[in-house]
Amino acid sequence: MSSDPGFAGVAEGRPFTVHDLEAMPDDGHRYELIDGVLIVTPAPGWHHQESSGELFVQLRIACTSEFRVLSAPFGVRTSVRNELQPDILVARYVDLTPKNLPIAPVLAVEVLSPSTALNDLNNKKAAYERMGTASYWVVDPDPPGRLTVFELGAAGRYAEVASICGDEKFTAERPFPITVIPARLLDGLHP
Question: Of 99, 95, 104, nearest to 66 (Cα)?
Fold first, then answer.
């Protein structure tokens, strides 16, 4: 297995499974699976954590009683060869198990980092789409801040419904009403 973040390949000439994930070291890296391919990413930096944390708080405040807002690491394990850990997820309370979410979340959020951007914008987006995640948000924490929102259409494909930056506002109706301003997600980056 390579020490570089990103795709790490296959285990002993076969696809990785969630059983292989359970044997991974607790070393600060995030281990995820997409179709049996292991994705290893380093711990996020503080800009990532600050913007993720701020959005988590905003979502938590707006969340209605039928949903729960969780932050990574918490696995979305939809099959033996697929387990993702979105930076933030929103799931129906009744769908959660103590250990993971065995079905698609209603919202998955990924915050871009230099080491994760390509995976977040391509492979993970496609994986969330295939599993039926209704909404997928991508946050770019670089000033002035950007939020890109994808929603699943009737044909089961994502359509970009918003791409806003700075002080622009996005108001979501699902999974619950919330207004997000990308620049506010960066407030903690300044003294």
Answer: 95
